[in-house]
Amino acid sequence: MKINRPLSPHLTIYKPQLTSTFSIFHRISGAFLATMVLFSIFSFKMGDLSLTFYHFYQYFFFLTFYLNWVIISLVNFTLLALCYHMSNGVRHLLWDSGLFLELSKVYTSGIIMLFRAAFLAPLNIIRQHWSNGQIPY
């Protein structure tokens, strides 16, 4: 006897919840931050690997002079991901200590975390731009 139904729940059945959305974005922001760290290490090591620094400095000059907006946007987006990931990490640490585990407090802490990240990111971007007006390399 064959029953015509799915064996496991699918994404089309469930409507996205706030907690699952925050969890997915927490993982995405962590993967993005790890990628940015690896990209930074690779960029700094690329100068060490070249026998002559001419091509490295030519590439670096092109990036900083002609594509300055790309670097600034990437740094700002990385700061946004970092603020979100840290705020959600603090929320998870509070859960691990046994706080805010009731359903209503889970949603409230999620909204507070989102506003905290939305407040910290522009604050860090403004602080970054006001510190000498340069991107810290």
From TrEMBL:
InterPro entries: SQR/QFR_C/D, Succ_DH_cyt_bsu_CS, Succ_DH_cytb556, SuccDH_FuR_B_TM-su. Heme binds at residue 85. Its main location: membrane. One of its GO terms (cellular component) is mitochondrion. Keywords: Heme, Iron, Membrane, Metal-binding, Mitochondrion, Transmembrane, Transmembrane helix. The chain crosses the membrane at residues 24-44, 56-87. It is a multi-pass membrane protein. SUPFAM superfamilies: Fumarate reductase respiratory complex transmembrane subunits. The heme is bound between the two transmembrane subunits. Its cofactor is heme. GO terms for molecular function: electron transfer activity; metal ion binding. One of its GO terms (biological process) is mitochondrial electron transport, succinate to ubiquinone. It holds the Pfam family Sdh_cyt. NCBIfam families: succ_dehyd_cytB. This is Succinate dehydrogenase subunit 3. The gene is sdh3.
